[in-house]
Write a structure and sequence with these properties.
By secondary structure, the chain is α+β, with helices and mostly antiparallel strands. The protein contains eleven helices and 16 strands. Helix 1 packs across helix 2, helix 2 packs parallel to helix 3 and helix 5 crosses helix 6.
Length: 389
């Protein structure tokens, strides 16, 4: 169950010296042959775009989506680092390419960590030969460990593509700043299905839109968010719809793992707004609730305070009629017609005590619907993010 589960890929993860703790901090995912294969990526929409994002995007454009390897580091974001940061990102790609025998443009780069701090590039470049030498077919777990920052555990996935022997494997990191248009997250997916890069790009964008882009922990958007996919083709052609389904499932699995490991979180919340005048209205309401500190604190306190949900939706531009509004927790309706209704309070309390909450807000106005994955807000989140940690 890792990024090296599909045929044709190797990976590694080592400690190069970026992290004073001695924890792994440098990761590689590559084709077993060192030859490029079709690839695609989706990047952050943040205008303070990190150097590795700009570099990887440029490399994909230069090669028309041919990728031989991805190098990733944790412990430093290489964001807000100016021209030197861009040079450092290029140097990381060139160092890997020299070891693998491919072109620098065929290597992508990802970084995660603190913003605005110069890269310890000499330390990283000195570690690249060991990183490349350590690659092997079961190295996916090592690679996933080496991209962790505040994650409490590594995040991996494996999904079989229906009707074939092909699979989709993947790894990700992410525990905070999980907001629309991805998050403080990196993900690398691989598949042994035969597919062209332009098809991969379309499928990946759809998969991201229904997984990582539905994930909100603190409504803060990062500078480095990247999701990459590579296809070795070793298992041959597959049904396009089955491939899209598998990639979507892999992304959704990783997104749920990130929600469950969000900084300080004790609850994963599946929040759905239904009955909206349009899907766009449903999205406005769902995202407003998911970013609300009031709502998130109430979930931490196990308080089914449905009025906060209604208040947040009512503050948006979405069409809203309080006399048609209803709320349920765990399938138990606690409000209808905009007022509290009799319900099994003990059953609701039992649901609120669970680590996974299911909340539905129905606007009673149409067929529009939208779901987000979010979490509660706890003391530990504040502790984790005090002082730039």
């Amino acid at each position: 169950m890792s990024v090296t589960a599909p045929q044709g890929f190797v990976a590694s993860g080592i400690h190069s010296g970026i992290k004073p703790s001695g924890d792994p901090d440098l990761s590689l995912v590559a084709t077993a042959s060192g030859e490029p294969v079709p690839g695609a990526a989706v990047f952050t929409a943040n205008k303070l775009t990190a150097a590795p994002v700009l570099t990887s995007d440029a490399h994909l454009g230069a090669t028309l989506g041919s990728v031989a390897a991805v190098i990733l580091n944790s412990g430093n974001a290489n964001a807000a680092t100016g021209q030197q940061g861009l040079a450092d990102a290029e140097a990381m790609c060139a160092a890997v390419a020299a070891q693998l025998g491919c072109r620098p443009e065929e290597v992508l780069v990802c970084s995660t960590g603190l913003i605005g701090i110069p890269m310890p590039i000499d330390t990283i470049l000195a570690g690249v030969p060991d990183l490349v030498a350590a690659r092997w077919g079961d190295g996916g777990g090592d690679a996933a460990e080496a991209i962790r920052t505040t994650d409490t555990h590594r995040k991996e996935t494996l999904v079989r593509i229906e009707g074939s022997n092909a699979v989709v494997g993947g790894m990700a990191k992410g525990a905070a700043m999980l907001a629309p248009n991805m998050a403080t997250m990196l993900a690398v997916l691989t598949t042994d299905a035969a597919v062209e890069s332009h098809e991969l790009r379309q499928v990946l964008r759809l998969a991201v839109s229904t997984s990582f882009n539905r994930l909100m922990t603190d409504a803060c958007q990062s500078t480095n968010d990247t999701v990459i996919i590579l296809a070795s083709g070793a298992a041959g052609p597959v049904d396009p719809d089955a491939l899209a389904t598998a990639i979507g499932q892999a992304c959704a699995d990783l997104a749920m793992q990130m929600a469950g490991d969000a900084e300080g979180a004790t609850k994963v919340v599946k929040l759905t707004v239904t009955g909206a005048a349009s899907d766009a209205d449903a999205e406005l309401g769902a995202r407003q609730i998911a970013r609300s500190a009031l709502c998130k604190c109430s979930w931490f306190g196990q308080d089914p305070y449905w009025g906060r949900l209604g208040s947040e939706i009512g503050s948006t531009a979405a069409a809203f009629d309080q006399e048609r509004f209803s709320v349920s927790y765990g399938g138990i309706t606690v409000a209808a017609g905009g007022i509290t209704v009799p319900h099994d309070e003990a059953a609701v309390a039992a649901h609120m005590a669970q680590p996974n909450l299911v909340i539905n807000c129905d606007l009673g106005l149409g067929s529009g619907t939208f779901r987000v994955i979010t979490n509660d807000l706890t003391h530990e989140y504040i502790d984790e993010n005090t002082g730039g940690s």
